[in-house]
Amino acid sequence: MTKPPFSSDGDSSQPADERGFFAGQKPKRPGLGMPAAQQDDAHYHGHRDRLRTRYKDHGDTALADYEILELLLFRLIPRRDTKPIAKALLERFGTLAGVFGASPALLQEVKGIGEAVAFDLKLISTVTHRTLKSDLKGKQVLGSWSSVIDYCHAAMAHETREQFRILFLDKRNALIADEVQQTGTVDHTPVYPREVVKRALELSATALILVHNHPSGDPTPSRADIEMTKTIIDTAKPLGIAVHDHIIIGKDGHASLKGLRLI
């Protein structure tokens, strides 16, 4: 006899995996012995079919953001009305990018999102990042600048701590490697210019693009950002390594130190 997916601690009121729990509940057709409360809950089945049809016939432009999120949650939580969950996620995190950029712990603060669904949402986010990154492979990065910005924004804009990332380029300005060298606090990341240059030499890189995020959301460079960038430039230049730019990523935009003529 198959046991329901309850947690191993013996508390039968808590499912170990909310996807399996809801999937295990076979809904009855309304009117066939189903209590009134359950009949009310079954309304979402027709709603799902209508939403899928709209997407199939008209594409994503026919759907609001919460409806796109609903379509995804249909598969992650098969036996539950996911519209309230989708709306709660967007209310909590503001945008679709905010939802997928949120940490698993924060996602689970939203009612209806358990560990398994939070994991799946982060997995989808990772696939998106890898897809954007793959667009840069083998291409001259300076000629694909919008792709660089899109990738960095997807990877870093919603991080709750500062990250210092380096894009290492070869002599054709093609991407060799993309590495997060340091992770700091909400408003500071320690950066060591000698370590930056050392890693560039290890990878035989001839150029760098520096990137870091501002969790506050404001990408305006600080005096410390500018001074640190100039120090890295001065350290790298004698070794034949150029610093093309330092990009600062915020939730709603970015700043380029080169574009601002600060380097």
SSE succession: HHHHHHHHHEEHEHEE
Portion in strands: 5-15%
Q: CATH H-level name of the largest domain... which superfamily?
A: Cytidine Deaminase, domain 2
Largest sheet: 5 strands, mixed
Assigned CATH architecture of the largest domain: 3-Layer(aba) Sandwich
When the domains are counted, the total is 2
Ends: how far apart? Answer: 70 Å
The coarse overall form would be elongated
Instruction: Write the CATH fold name of the largest domain.
Output: Cytidine Deaminase, domain 2
Number of H/I helices? 11
Q: Mean pLDDT across all residues, rounded?
A: 83
Q: Strand order across the biggest sheet?
A: 2-1-3-4-5
* Helical percentage: 40-55%
**Derived structural class:** alpha+beta
Q: Taking Cα atoms only, what radius of gyration do you get, to the nearest Å?
A: 24 Å
Uncertain segments of ≥5 residues (pLDDT<50)? 2-19, 21-32, 36-40
How many strand units? Answer: 5
The level 1 CATH classification of the largest domain is Alpha Beta
Organism: Rhizobium herbae
InterPro entries: MPN, RadC_JAB, RuvA_2-like, UPF0758, UPF0758_CS
Family: Belongs to the UPF0758 family.
Protein name: DNA repair protein RadC
